[in-house]
Amino acid sequence: MSIKIITDSACQITDSNKNENLIILNMPVISSDKEYIEGQTINSSDMFSRMKNGEVFKTSQVPYKTYYESFKNELESGNDVICITLSSGLTSTFQTATMAMNALLEENKDYKIIVKDSLCACSGETSVINKVLKLVELNYSFEELNEKLDEIISAQEHIFTVTNLEYLYRGGRLSKTQKVMGSLLNIRPVMSVDKNDGSLYVVEKARGEKQTFIKMKNLMIEKCNNNVNLNQTLYVCYGEDEDEADLLIEKIKEDFDFKKIVKCPLGCVIGAHTGPNMLSIYFSNKDLGEELSEV
Which GO terms describe its molecular function (predicted)? Predict the structure, then answer.
C-alpha cells in the first residue's frame, strides 16, 4: 500500500512518469470546439503562436468520471489518495473532485482519500505538489500529510504580471477601457492570488519593466512580513520571453540569495488565459523546514 498524489495538468509537471506516486489528469485545451491535450496534441509554443494570430483558446475541467475512476482504481488497489486541484477561484475542478470523493466514501467509508483545494495556479501548484511528493518520499503518514498540506498551501504565494493586456481583456479580467489605456501608457498590472478563495486580483499597476520588477520584489517582501525566507526554492515562470525571466532573476539575486531558483516555462492550461507574455514568481511566506527547502 502507498499514498498516491492525484492532480491536474495545470500543475505543469511534465515528468510525472518519473515519480510513481504522482498521477496527472488532463485538463483539455479547447479552440473552435476541438480539444487538445498538452504534450500530446499541442504545446505552449504552438498555442501561443496561434493566439497571437487571433485564435482564442479556453480550457475545460477534469470530468467527474475521470476523477471517480482514477480515485477508485487507486483505492481498490489498496492505496490512499490525496488529490490536489487547481485553485477553486479559477475552475470548478475542486468541487468536481470532491463530489467524486464523496460518492466513493458512500460506497466504502473506510477508504482513505482527501481532496485539497491548492488555492494555487501554475508553478504555485507545482511547488505545493513537489513538497507533498517529498514528504511522501520521507514516509509521512496519510494523516501527517493531510495536516502538513494545509500549512504548505497557506504559505504559498503568487506574484505575476503580463506585458500584453489583450488576453486578460478576452478573459474578462479587464474592461476594454482598461486594456486600451493600459496599453497606451505601457502599464502592467502586478497581480496575486487571494488566499481566501484562490481568485486573481490586481494588487497595483506599474509602468515599464523596471518599475514592474521593483513592485514585484516589494510585494514579495510585504507578503513575507518583511522577513523573506531564503531557505527555500523560488519558482520563476515565464511565457515566451525567457530573457525577461532571466532579468527578473538577476534583479532578485541583487537582494535575495535564495537556496534554489527554478525557472519554468508556462504551460497551456494557464497560458490559454494569460497569453504568452506572462511572468511570475512563487514562494512560501515562511520557513517550512529544511526537508522542503529544495522543492
Answer: lipid binding
Total number of domains constituting the chain: 2
Cβ(20)–Cβ(144) under 8 Å?
Answer: no
Residues 288 and 186 in one domain: yes
The three cell numbers locating residue 160: 505575476
pLDDT greater than 80 at residue 17? no
Residue 61 near residue 92, CB atoms below 8 Å: yes
Q: 182 and 135 in one domain?
A: no
CATH code for the domain of 165: 3.30.1180.10
In a domain, 117, yes or no: yes
How far does Cα 158 stand from its chain's mean position? 9
Rounded to whole angstroms, the Cα distance separating 169 from 134 reads 38
Helix axes 142-155, 123-137, angle to 10 degrees: 150
Domain contains 64: yes
Are 139 and 160 contained in the same domain? no
- Domain with 164, as residue range(s), is 155-292
User: 224: how many CB neighbours lie within 10 A of its CB?
Assistant: 16
- Is 80 exceeded by the pLDDT of residue 1? no
Nearest to 83 by CA among 32, 36, 22, 158: 22
CA distance 82 to 127: 16
The string of pLDDT tens digits covering residues 258-269 is 999 999 999 999
> What is the value of pTM for the model shown?
0.93
Other CB atoms within 10 A of residue 186 CB: 13
Residue 282 has pLDDT above 80, yes or no: yes
Same domain, residue pair 146 and 191 = no
- For residue 12, give Cα distances in angstroms to 26, 44, 89, 172: 11, 11, 18, 24
Which of 154, 170, 204 is the last residue in one of the domains?
154
What is the three-class DSSP state of 16?
helix
Q: CA angle, corner 195, sides to 194 and 200, nearest 5? A: 20
Does any domain span residue 134?
yes
